[in-house]
Amino acid sequence: MTDRSLARCPLEEVVSQAVASGVDWVQVREKDLTGKSLLELSQRVARAARRGAAARDTAGAASVRVVVNRRSDVALALSPGTDTPPEGRIDGVHLGFDGVGPAEARRLLGPEALIRVSCHAPAEAVAALEAAASYVHLAPVFAPISKTAGAPSLGLPALAAAAESGLPVLAQGGIDAKNAGEVVSAGAAGVAVTGAILMAADPGEAAGALRRALDAAGRAR
Asked: Is 174 within a domain?
């Protein structure tokens, strides 16, 4: 999840390094940007992500997915069905409490779009499933790294309960290479991080450490 205010070098460089080291999803989350500025940054991030994926995977850059935070209109403008060059396209939208609902986003973006929904309780994951979401973020599992906690940590039992909804659950909040295996063991399909990569002295190495921890936990599950 991006936040260019935390990055120690240009955001596109961080994204490219992180994807080259194993990140396979990028969420453009820049809350101060709207309209054209957000659209243009989303395109640049998508291109950077695909450069990183191509460096990692000689089969091509299709292995990385990019979504934009809350703005279904930006997702629609840069969707695969538009004239946007393939390397600048994005794959869907991440929805929060102040955007359109997942059912409406699905109607706008179509059946192939990725519709990601923020959840703060296991029951919300069930509601997201019923509203045709692709998967959910559950947060905060642990105390966040990149900001002051705005709510009590949910912990691993809540994560396990959300995973029973039938939707893939990404664990968010306070996750790094040291505890990534715990959330996978609890049922998470993956993790969503900001500070663990953006605030690292070496974003590529931090992303690689996370990738290795997740892969090891997945093999053990």
From this structure: yes
Render 18-70 in DSSP notation, one character per residue: HHHTT--EEEE--TT--HHHHHHHHHHHHHHHHHHHHHH-TT-STT-EEEEES
What's the CA gap between 111 and 213, in Å, rounded? 32
Q: 63 is in which domain, residue-wise?
A: 11-215
Secondary structure class of 134 (helix, strand, coil): coil
The answer to whether the beta carbons of residues 129 and 166 sit under 8 Å apart is yes
Mean pLDDT across the stretch 91-109? 91
pTM over 0.85, yes/no: yes
CATH number at residue 94: 3.20.20.70
Question: Does residue 197 lie within any of the structural domains?
Answer: yes
Q: What is the mean pLDDT of residues 160-170?
A: 95
φ, ψ for residue 25, nearest 5 deg? -140, 140
Q: Is the pLDDT of residue 150 over 80?
A: no
